[in-house]
Amino acid sequence: MMIRYRKRSMMIRYLVLLILFTVMGSCADTELARFEVTAGEYDRQDWPVRVEVPPLAADLEEAVGLFELTPGGRAPVPFQLDFEDGTAVIRFMATGVTSRGTTREYVLLKRRGKQPVTLPVATMQQDENELILSDASQPVLSYRISEIMPPEGVDSVFRRSAYIHPFYSPGGMVLTRIQPPDHYHHYGIWNPWTLTHINGREIDYWNLGKGEGTVRTKAVLETVEGPVFSAYTALQQHIDKGHTTGERVTMDEFWEVTYWGKSADGKRYILDLHTTLRNVLQDTILFDAYRYGGGLGYRATGEWNNENSTVLTSEGADRATADGTRARWCIVEGASPVKEGRSGILFMSHPENREHPEPMRVWPPDSNHGELFFEFCPIRHNDWVILPGRDYLLKYRMVVFDGAITAEEAERYWNGFAYAE
Prior knowledge:
The protein is an all-beta fold.
């Protein structure tokens, strides 16, 4: 197994209830640590786990293995090992369903000889235009680095970067759309703010046609490829186009995107999007309450309409009733050319997010020719004051699937997301 050691500037942190650590000797084929992971009061499904382990010191250069202790014996578990401010941390996936009140026991071993090299769950290829994340030979997503122009004959003011498209289901269906004729400013998965004011002057970063603002990728700051997750962190800048001094950056935004690999059956994968917003001005920025803006926006494939796609929220709302309501999670799905016949995304909002359960913008079935738009919109009902020099974090998880996800499964996935920290 290939173990990577690195220090990340922005770490995704997952907390597990640590019941027991037993530190053994450091000779070959000996136990370094033993611990239990408990589901607590919640059923969970396929949830990433983060565990702090005793200092391994020189053992880090030796072969180390993680195993789950099951009735059938020791089962090897892929993991990634890190140092965080001098603390040794491992991350792995607790696969399958972990029922409430149950525990799973693991042991970390120093083993004799070298272990086989484990390939990363995903690799990344990057040029000046885009970063492509692929699982084996199959693309998962493309993150846009350079600005892309709108279709021929459309005003160049609609050019844009800093979004995800194409975004694929496990079976290869493209789930996103950019620059649709009804909304040239829509870009796959993206999150600009709409009705924004600085010193009383409006800057709209969403409606590009107004020429007031935009969002651009400044740089990809870091990429990580490992046997449990692969990730990238991008710096996006919110641009005020109408300031008296010319264009200026008003906000830095750090997008940390983490891919956790496919499920055992290959029909699902988990993707995390953590976005940290920072006001770089000396002035306060006001996000006015509005039905669009920020959070996580999704323009669905043009193949979906009001006859072949559905919406279901954690509160039981559907496409006709979800708009303006709040939810912990939302399933968006529709017809697909994959063999299962359906594909979709389970969107989840973290309890620490502003306004959680989070308000949503969902196009009703009788609007925009029946096409589908979904957004977690933390300013839907209330203004948000963004103070200078402070960081504001929003955390989202997506379970991307072919086939179907039930409400019960969605609840288990959300529990693993919500109660892991």
